[in-house]
Design goal:
The complex is a heterodimer of chains A (162) and B (145). Chain A has seven helices and no strands. Chain A is mostly helical and 162 residues long. Chain A folds into two domains: 98 residues, no CATH class; 60 residues. In chain A, helix 6 packs across helix 7. The radius of gyration of chain A is 21 Å and the shape is globular. In chain B, helix 2 packs across helix 3 and helix 5 packs across helix 6. Chain B is globular and about 50 Å long. Chain B starts with a helix and ends in a 5-residue tail after the last helix. The chains are: A mainly alpha (162), B mainly alpha (145). Chains A and B meet through helix 2, helix 3, helix 4, helix 5 and helix 6 of A and helix 1, helix 2, helix 3, helix 4 and helix 5 of B.
Chain lengths: 162, 145
């Protein structure tokens, strides 16, 4: 009897572990990733020519991608200010875990400058880079060197060089 | 600029906003692709990393699927040589980690939250990108489109 109970406790514990790590939250994450990918594709963010046209303000400017940000902010700001702020915690997690919004430091500015140069050269930012990673050879080259850039940053940071 | 482009941009943007809102309301996290990638490199524990890996894998698979059903959403011609693309990739990878975010994390989530950091980061990377394209146009006569 005791043994069955013990077994049961162990089983339900491992079941709740899987329930936490797998299943429902990850279903929502997957839906979110699909919507995100379709949104990037539909809006034109996966076409570097379109992105570079948007950034080509002093040339033949195509301002249409401005509306990507507009549409995204309209929806997200509504969700943030009118939904998430009324919740004491997220629906399927223990707490909200949001980054600081305050202090501007040198890393923020310097990093954003480097990112801007890379984005202006290739017309690809990290989200589209994931999508393009296997679509073309150039997508693969960009994505893999982006990962090397990420790894290099965390390497030098861990070494205390930065 | 055509009306159709604007409508696609608006509705695509709304989808992006909705997907980020889903991550916020369900999971309590910011949807920032560079942050998601970076946190996997830092690796704290599986619980922390699993949802990020799932997000990236599903996004990647969505891309594979879309490239077959919506080939018009993709470009044929890369804007740069292989070397140029590799350099740009390194800058985007390193820069987004140092600057703590990219177009999704700062540009969409951060600005919506009225984060001072994100507003400034977005202005800086948009300004730098516009300047980069302008300099390239000045030097080579084309923006690489």
């Amino acid at each position: 009897m005791n043994m069955t109970q013990g077994n049961f406790a162990q089983q339900s514990q491992s079941r709740s572990y899987f329930k936490d790590i797998l299943s429902v939250p990850l279903l929502f994450i997957s839906i979110s990733a699909i919507l995100f990918g379709v949104g990037l594709g539909l809006s034109g963010m996966t076409r570097s020519s379109k992105v570079l046209g948007f950034l080509d303000v002093f040339g033949v400017w195509d301002p249409s991608l401005m509306f990507v940000m507009l549409g995204a902010i309209a929806v997200y700001a509504t969700a943030f200010h009118f939904v998430s702020k009324r919740l004491s915690k997220p629906l399927l997690a223990n707490e909200f875990s949001l980054p600081n919004t305050g202090k501007v430091d040198r890393g923020l500015i310097g990093g954003s400058i480097l990112f801007g140069v890379g984005w202006g050269l290739a017309g690809v930012c990290p989200g589209p880079a994931v999508i393009l990673s296997t679509v073309s050879t150039s997508g693969f080259v960009f994505f893999s060197s982006m990962l090397i850039g990420v790894a290099f940053y965390h390497f030098v940071k861990r070494r205390g060089i930065l | 600029m055509y009306l159709q482009d604007v409508l696609n941009a608006l509705s695509g943007g709304a989808l992006i906003g909705f997907s980020a809102a889903l991550v916020l309301i369900v999971n309590g996290r910011i949807l920032g692709v560079s942050g998601i990638i970076g946190q996997i490199f830092i690796f704290k524990n599986w619980r922390d990393v699993t949802w990020r890996v799932v997000f990236l894998v599903v996004l990647f698979l969505t891309g594979v699927f879309l490239s077959h059903v919506r080939p018009e959403w993709f470009d044929g011609q890369p804007p740069l040589s292989r070397f140029g693309l590799a350099l740009a990739g390194l800058l985007v990878g390193f820069g987004t980690q140092l600057g703590n975010g990219c177009t999704s994390g700062h540009g969409v989530c951060g600005i919506s939250r009225l984060s001072k950091r994100s507003v400034i980061a977005t202005l800086v990377f948009m300004g730098t990108a516009i300047l980069t394209v302008a300099i390239r146009r000045f030097l080579t006569g084309s923006a690489g489109l």
